[in-house]
Design brief:
The chain has 106 residues and is an all-alpha fold. Among the domains are: 44 residues, no CATH class; 30 residues, no CATH class. It is built from 6 helices and no strands. The longest helix is centred in the middle third of the chain and has 13 residues. The termini are far apart. This is Transposase. It comes from Bowmanella dokdonensis.
Length: 106
Amino acid sequence: MVDDPADYSWSSYQSNGLGKRVKLLTPHPQYLKLGKTDEERQSCYRELFRYQVEGKLLDDIRKAANKGLVLGSKRFVEEVEALTGKRLREGKRGRRVGWRKERDLV
């Protein structure tokens, strides 16, 4: 898309990260918690975009987002599944091995 988040015209980065006043933008409560002053908040916000996500991590994030899965450690995924009552990790695709034998027994 762009090399610098400030170059993307539809992003709130110019306001949140650089302090540009935008009449249409209302600061989000989470943004306001980044610091006590405008300068602190802008500095913390810029730090969020300091590094690019690439390679396998980017692929894993896309896969989880596209499939509605949880991304994290095994323990974290299990805890989220327990809280939601839903399976949120990828399962094996296709039918179970031996499903035809089970069908023939009925």
